[in-house]
Amino acid sequence: MTTLLSSHVVPTALLLSLITVAFTLVFGRVFCGWVCPLGTLNDCMGRLTPARRRKEYGGEQARRLKYYGLIGILVSSLFTLQIAGLADPLSLLIRSLAMAVEPAVNLMVNTLFDLIYRADIPVVTPLAETVYSFLKDYLLSFRQPFFYQGFFFGLIFAAVLAANLFRRRFWCTALCPLGALLGFITRISPLKRAVGKGCTSCNICVRACRTGAATDVKGAWRKAECVVCGECQEECPKDAVRFGLRTTKGKVAGIDLQRRGLITSLVAGIFIPPLIRTHPTTQRRKGRLIRPPGALPEGEFLRRCVRCGECMKVCLTNGLQPALFEAGLEGIWTPRFDFRTGYCQYYCTLCGQVCPTGALTKLTQEEKARTKIGLAYIDKNRCIPYAQGGECIVCEEHCPTPDKAIKFEQVEIATPQGRRRIKRPVIDLKLCIGCGICEYKCPLHDQPAIIVTRLGESRAGELLPF
Amino acid sequence: MSPLTRREVLKLILAGAGAALVPWPRQGTVVAQTASLPDVVVSKGASPVAITEAAVQALGGMGRFISRGDVVLVKPNIGWDRSPAQAATTNPEVVATLVRLALAAGAKEVKVFDNPCEDARRCYVSSGIMEAAKKAGARVSYMDDRRFRKMDIKGEALKSWEVYQEAVEVDKIINCPILKHHSLARLTMGMKNLMGLTGGDRARFHWQLDQALTDLAAFFKPTLVVLDAVRILTANGPQGGSLKYVKQLNTVAAGVDQVAIDAMGTRLFGITPAEVNLLAVAARRGLGRMDLGKLRIKEVKANS
Fold it and tell me: Considering the entire predicted model, what is its pTM?
């Protein structure tokens, strides 16, 4: 949605979301109540609070928050700033699971089974190993993933879940911008909730409602908050609650926004984009900010990427990492390559395949092999053949380009032991695609003697001196 | 991958039956025969399966190397994310044939694994080795980080190093490297292929490569080496990637002497053993012989 507004294109995934919109137009926020995985998780968490300790839903103020947030996001997306992904429930969930929960669980399970494996206890260890190999085949990661900021993603996720202990579905009612959007849409929906004559105002339905939408016969149903879970209908001892499309009965409350909040969110939506873009990276990108292959030109890329983290999750080598401030505040949590952690595998095209918004285009293997994401440079003060006159060919050996972007020059050097001939790596910038395997594999791990910077990336289409 | 032909199946059954019928104290007879067996067999022909079978046969058959109940490691080169046609990894048919022969000779289990330079999943699949070896009955596994142990190599360059435990626990190792160009070692063949059984920071081997590889060769002592030269990579090795550097030789070389096989590899490649320093280092350490003139070399032609 915001991708549409900020970049004026219709990604395919957006067409799918029209199904959700269509359903909402008729049946209300069924997506939130029946489909949204984060909503389901919130419900599970909400059950952990015993009924007697639950807070009543009074917080009109809290409920308004999400609308203000949405307005801010939508307005700023009109000004080409894409920040919906930060709070979109699906992005949030995928990001949290992929970059915090899964790596942590994986590490925990591995550590546990490692311990048993090392202890080598008769009967126990072989048994544990059978379980482990099953887990390894079907559940655990092939290799332990590591992510910058995984800890913070985990904290945010934990906070979202823990909020349910305070109020059930706190996220959905107070913060979720998607919930707010669907809430707006429900206003046109013909769905009605009628409370019949049998109602004794026992308020069981009000207490049962997880979003504070249900009311007794006298009150007006807060339609935009209702996730159509049907709990009020189920719980009603008098069977007085009915949902229907054709019934005309039943009072409906609209979305009650205050002028002050509305103006604040509008103004925020207008001013956030320029404010965020006062960061110097808006003008000149950092050299080490290397985007995945197939990324659109930077501006367009930022307008499309929703920070869901799918590309980072599938990256074979774990090289794709979430940015913090490397791409300015605007680019927070967008994918960037960290060649100390991993590199871009020559024939792999997974990130482009999973990107839901087209911020990364799908590439064929041939296109991928031609796509430059940066260029490699040798630090001659550190590189072993240059600095110490020793033999080392690791970067050349790993260079995946068929005609070798890293070649050798044979030179004769003087060493304390006399003159000798050695091979020194030189880079053919025409052939280099910036995949970063040389930087990753350089034996000088502390500070590689060959590094990749973004200069020369295909998507920028810059004029280059070679 | 071509499926088994009827001829191959019959051969297999015959080989199996033959192995079962050979009288028990056959070890003695084999030892007596080795005196007349060649040091290196060079087998040529259009079918990788047939030339591998013929090479092993000319060395006295797999029964000479594998005893009933052995756990065997067939160690191909699965180092890179490349297809068989790109000749950066061992020919999958050669690997599968060795697996099949080892099982037919009575091996209890045949394992296949390697520690690739790139993502193991891509290398195992792209090379075609996982599929072929599994079909032939091998247990193909990805190396498990936990199973690397720092072991005493007692070498000159490597005093101790992380070695894959399973590789040490097997009864026999059949090394099946591919012959290809290597930017530092000049060529990579059998001894270099053993690097795939080690872990740790292998990139540092390159600083004293010849010594380190000799240490590894002395440590692992493979029972049999089958050098795949069906397709060879003539330049930009060890990874290659372009078909213009691939040459079809339709050959395998096999033998017991690690140095001799690698020396033979240099001849197949079109250079001399003297041009590969590793051979001199290994020969000096008494690991094998590199003088092709003094070796008994037998050439066989295999037609399928």
Answer: 0.87
